[in-house]
């Protein structure tokens, strides 16, 4: 059995900062190469507090906080996103990812969002306005629009 510290949320195992024991092969072949965990050493155990603080900063505390964040997100209106587009066309080079949306929301003065909570209807591959929703809490989902503009 290997003793590891989780760095991300792993289904059926634990949350970031948890110290768990798993089979050696699971740790060596899956968790460690993907960066989901680090080996539990004395130095690594000191970083548990840092991981927990970072996770707590992103976490929605309760239903009231989720409703407050929803109001803030929906009050932003259209969130502008710059992307490279083909000349004389509305098609983008690549697509807009949830990480791009999270960054744009933060730059527009909104809260810091976890990219895993952002849900988009298909991939965004064209200039224009597209709907996006964010699952803040099991009972609260915020919806807003992102406006894709071609970059210079």
From TrEMBL:
PANTHER family: 50S RIBOSOMAL PROTEIN L9. HAMAP family: Ribosomal_bL9. It comes from Haloechinothrix alba. GO terms for molecular function: rRNA binding; structural constituent of ribosome. Gene3D superfamilies: Ribosomal protein L9, C-terminal domain, Ribosomal protein L9, N-terminal domain. Binds to the 23S rRNA. The gene is rplI. Belongs to the bacterial ribosomal protein bL9 family. This is Large ribosomal subunit protein bL9. Coiled coil: none annotated. InterPro entries: Ribosomal_bL9, Ribosomal_bL9/RNase_H1_N, Ribosomal_bL9_bac/chp, Ribosomal_bL9_C, Ribosomal_bL9_C_sf, Ribosomal_bL9_N, Ribosomal_bL9_N_sf. It comes from the Bacteria.
